[in-house]
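Q: Could you fold this chain for me?
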Amino acid sequence: MKGKYRFTKKERLIFYQELKEVMKYGKRVNTKNYTLFIKKNDKGFHRLGVIIKKEVGRATLRNRVKRYLREFFRLNKHKIKGSLDILIMVKKGTSPKKLWEVEEELSKVIV
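A: Sure. Below is the predicted structure, expressed as structure tokens.
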């Protein structure tokens, strides 16, 4: 897949130090199912990190939630102003059945 809808490796927050920095210095926003940490970066593009604990549910549920979050980011990153590091922590009890549920909740905060 080519174009603005790709989710490349450079757009991922994967290192512990990067996640810790976003949590420490980023703006915290709470929603019903997620806690978001948003911090400006100087990279020129957005980066996404997802943290989901085992208390949320079984591995299949955790993987589905991560897929939905990455897909939301992939489809909507071109609508976000500036260049940001976005870290999403999933709260216990979250179980979205469809992608539109995630999109409905996060689009109010990020886009």
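A (continued): Strands lie at 27-30, 34-40, 47-51, 84-90.
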